[in-house]
Amino acid sequence: MPVPGSFLQALLLPLDARFQSGQRDPPRGVADFPAKEKFTMRGLSMSKKKSSVRVVNGGAGLPLSSGGGRVSRSRPVELPFGVACAVMAEGLLCSIEWESSPEALEEALATKYPEAAMTRRGDGVPGDLLLAYGKGRVIRREEIAAIRFDWSRVSPFSREVLKELAKVPYGKSITYGKLAERCGRPGAGRAVGNVLSRNRWPLLLPCHRVLAAGQRIGGFAKGTAVKEALIRFERNSVAGEKSAQ
Prior knowledge:
CATH class of the domain at 16-42 and 153-244: Mainly Alpha
Radius of gyration: 17 Å
Largest sheet: 6 strands, mixed
Strand content: 5-15%
Structural class: alpha/beta
Oligomer: single chain
CATH topology of the domain at 16-42 and 153-244: Arc Repressor Mutant, subunit A
Distance between the termini: 31 Å
Shape: globular
CATH architecture of the domain at 16-42 and 153-244: Orthogonal Bundle
Number of strands: 8
Order of helices and strands: HEEEEEHEHHHEHHEH
């Protein structure tokens, strides 16, 4: 799978710091969102040839619902850094499933959402935003705010953290400690890290934009190289949009 030039540049450019915070780090190795399989760069072609984001196999081979289709999912979208889809239930976004390959995504969906049916009338806002994200379009906070998240299994504190996280602009970053301060919980950087480790909506609720104290990259389930690359990928997209204006 070829890697777009902007993503390749993201891997190679140094990470610049934007925020300062004296708060404590979250626990060493805390992942910003759960993943069953570690992402690996092995097998990716480091070609600078332009690569388009595409739907994977039209969703072939993924389990469909036999129980009325109350749970649905968007078509899998192949990104430069894995494969993802949105899982919906009655108009609410349950989760973003993001794995390293179509096979890993199929396994995760079969385990977590065996009843989920492929959407037949378009992918809706979350699926469309995933596709746009992979293409490098700058995602606005207003677009994320329009999504109806399923908060039913999220504690009040976690919901507060994730809603503040959604306000971190595309292409920017923040520290765990600073995010805790914005939630009115100074010194609670570790607690914020624990919340992000259970984030069910990666990419759209951007836990990859949260850094450790001292501008260190911090932990990430997909690997620190991918976390850095996501930040740079977004910054390159912002720069490209500005230059096109």
